[in-house]
Every structure is written in C-alpha cells, then in structure tokens.
Amino acid sequence: MKVWAVILAAGVSKRMGYPKTLLPFNGKSIIRHVIKKALSSNVDGIIAVINPNVRGLEQEVKETGVKVVINQYTENGMSSSLWNGLKALPNEVEATLILLGDQPGVDPWVINKIIKTYEETRSKIIQPTYQGIPGHPVLFDQSLFPYLYEVRGDQGGREVIQKFLSERVLIETGQSLLKDIDTWEDYIQLIKSSNQKIGS
What we know:
By secondary structure, the chain is α/β, with parallel strands linked by helices. The protein contains 7 helices and 10 strands.
C-alpha cells in the first residue's frame, strides 16, 4: 500500500502580511519543520504545493528534496492547492495524507499511527483527535479523490469528511491540538511554547 503526503503551503498569509511558511522557528523555516516531520514518517512520498509568488519558498522547499508543485491559482483558496496536490500523485497511490504547511508541531508518530490504522482498517478517512478534538493531518482513501476535486474555496477536505462521517475512523493522540499560524499572535505563542518546552 502506498500513502503519500500532500503538504498545503500555498497560502497568501493575508492576515499576517508576511509568508508564514518562511518564518524562522528553532533555527529553520516553519515549512522546513513540516517537511522534516513528514520525511521522518512512514509516508511513501511527499508533495509540497506552494505559492509561486512567495519569494524564496520554492528554493526553500526544493532543498529538502521533496516534490514541488506550483499552484498558479492561489486566489481560489485552499481547495486549489488540494486539487494540484492530488493531480501530482502517482497513479499507484492508495491514499493521501493532507498536512498543513503552517503546523510545525505535527508529530511523525501521529502520521505513522494514521498510516498503520489505515493499513489495518482500510477506512476511507482516518483523522487524529487531540484530547477529543478532531485535527490534522487527515488521511483520505483514493476512492474519495473525486469528491475532493469537487471542493471549492478554503474548505479543504472538511466537506468530504462531513459527507463520509460514517466512513471515518478517529484515533486519539493524547496531545494538545495542533494550531495553525494565522496571525502574529499565533506565531509569538508558538515561540513561547517552544521556549517553555526547551526550558522545562
């Protein structure tokens, strides 16, 4: 069975006014942290969907060795990145794991647990929960790809999850909920929480 990760990193960071994926965090850019976590997991391949208008992002991602896909239609929202990522997947892929490019705290252990659960259950959707709250990354079986192509705007895979709730398997991580970095306050909180962990 082949499971590939698709990292959605083509956002325009309107609320921040600065490309959040390139913000520094513990010596590396945020997108590098996400890619490193994916590389440390059991996924069979990785695609990063990026915004060509973010200066330096393409080079930053290429240096990691993962496959880069350019999203020329970022104004259409997250769904356009999802479509581009799905189109770039090899034909033999059986499922894709959708990661967000602004969640450097994603845990390879969680990714591996999702993949293992998929291998054991072959459920159409595998989603982690963080102390009971559903979060990312989410795995979608290839049978749901046509429905993901129908998504519009900034919904990502949320509509498809709701449509196939009966096909979803939840796995509890026991960890705190992963947070997106949408504002400078989110970024500052990320730095503070990291410093607390290092100092503890």
